[in-house]
Automatic annotation (TrEMBL):
Belongs to the Gfo/Idh/MocA family. One of its GO terms (molecular function) is nucleotide binding. Signal peptide: none annotated. It comes from the Eukaryota. This is D-xylose 1-dehydrogenase (NADP(+), D-xylono-1,5-lactone-forming). It is an enzyme of class 1 (oxidoreductase). Residues 7-130 form the Gfo/Idh/MocA-like oxidoreductase N-terminal domain. Transmembrane segments: none annotated. Keywords: Oxidoreductase.
Length: 385
């Protein structure tokens, strides 16, 4: 019989809606039979009516409990896992609230504002014997799993370089002056790096670092970056970085090392005409060929394996489509992973181990420091009072 995870949804904004709709999709539509999900409760800091309106909008079952505050949600005995969907400026406080109430946690990306906060969350999860997942959803897609397998199989040779561009093509003044969007608000830890650049880093890490056996993984030995700020709020609007590793995948030991070039921007676009004419958003380049990821780096739906031309006339490009079943967003894959880990009593997922998640936060700290991007003390702090 399938294990059923009972979820509590903390916050009712844009991504909470997408995630909850995905949770409510029948797992059988994606071939999942061993785990299932129920939305046990929803909480909004804007009041119970907002929680109720959210539950109605996502078509949650009528018995879903709606709370007008997060404190009530984390106390609910019918909730196993709390999904944190507040702005990342507040993940530290809200994740701690859930962990201290004895709940497993799936926390939206980036898990915190900085590595110091993330470290405290992981220590607290360990101390309280609770599962904690850094919800970078792309990692759990079958597409990502397949690409990691292609790398470890050696089919494209030694991976020496990865490029990844996550740029949205949005007008900064429109985002801020007209829409007052969270993602360009300094007080809510806005900026391209933390909001979307994390996906470029995700691709660099899941290809150059995660594909190595755990014993051979080594942290980056050099990080260089360039950051352009939006003068109206001080957040980064355009950031490029090079992350170098002493190792290369899949063997780790050729001595050549490898590097990832990550790009992220609000005003520039990965896919300017939204028809894919700019080519792949991620290129994973090896000595025998490359893997090209098509679609935005956070939600790609196909990839190509392109062998290096070496005079072989039979060489052919392989294109693999990875559509999202049942019209879903693709967030159900991370939910399934969380449910399986909780069922098995695991504290962390092998797809996104705590030490790797922490390392990624350290890389982002480093890039922010180089660019002089500091958030207000109230949200950089590890002291909640
Ligand atoms: N995985 C993805 O693809 C993806 C996509 C977008 C965003 N995200 C991440 O998910 C998080 C939420 O993003 P979002 O786009 O859903 O944001 P959003 O639409 O602004 O929603 C955030 C929600 O958090 C709650 N909240 C609590 N304290 C708040 C505060 N001080 N200011 C504003 N809202 C506050 C509010 O819900 P209540 O009023 O109900 O409490 C609000 O609706 C961010 O960390 C973001 O990086 C992930």
């Amino acid at each position: 019989m399938a294990f059923t995870a009972r979820w509590g949804i903390l916050a009712t904004g844009w991504i909470a809606e997408k995630f909850t709709i995905d949770l409510l999709i029948d797992p059988a539509t994606r071939g999942t039979a061993d785990v299932a999900h129920v939305v046990a409760a929803v909480a909004s800091s804007s009041g119970e009516a907002q929680a109720r309106s959210f539950a109605t909008k996502v078509k949650a079952p009528h018995d879903t409990v709606c709370y007008g505050g997060y404190e009530d949600l984390v106390k609910d005995k019918n909730v196993d896992i709390v999904y944190i969907a507040s702005p990342h400026s507040h993940h530290f406080a809200h994740a701690l609230l859930a962990l201290n109430a004895g709940k497993h946690v799936v926390c939206e990306k980036p898990i915190t504002v900085n590595a110091r906060q993330a470290e405290i969350l992981y220590k607290t999860a360990k101390k309280n014997n609770l599962f904690f997942l850094d919800a970078v959803w792309t990692r759990y897609f079958p597409l990502s799993v397949q690409i990691r397998q292609i790398i470890t199989s050696g089919e494209v040779g030694e991976i020496l370089r990865v490029t990844a561009d996550t740029s949205m093509g949005e007008e900064m003044d429109d985002l801020w002056k007209r829409q007052k969007r969270r993602k360009v608000n300094l007080d809510l830890a806005g900026g391209a790096l933390l909001e979307i650049g994390i996906y470029s880093i995700t691709w660099i890490f899941q290809t150059l670092y995660h594909t190595l056996p755990a014993s051979k993984r080594q942290p980056p030995n050099k990080i260089m970056s360039h950051m352009v700020k939006y003068p109206e709020t001080g957040v980064d609007e355009d950031t490029t970085f090079i992350v170098s590793f002493p190792t290369s995948s899949p063997s780790g030991s050729s001595g050549r090392g490898s590097h990832g070039v990550g790009m992220t921007a609000f005003p520039l676009a990965t896919d300017p005409d939204q028809r894919g004419t700019a080519g792949p958003s991620v290129r994973i380049q090896g000595t025998k060929g490359e893997i090209q990821v098509l679609g935005m780096p956070f939600q790609p739906d196909r990839y190509k394996v392109v062998p290096l031309r070496d005079g072989d006339a039979t060489m052919s490009v392989r294109e693999v489509l990875c559509p999202f079943p049942a019209g879903g967003h693709g967030m159900y894959y991370e939910a399934d992973e969380a449910a399986r880990c909780v069922r098995e009593g695991k504290l962390e997922s092998e797809t996104m181990p705590w030490d790797e998640s922490l390392l990624i936060m350290k890389v982002m700290d480093d890039i922010r420091e180089q660019g002089g991007l500091k958030y207000p003390d109230a949200i950089e702090s590890t002291d909640l009072h």
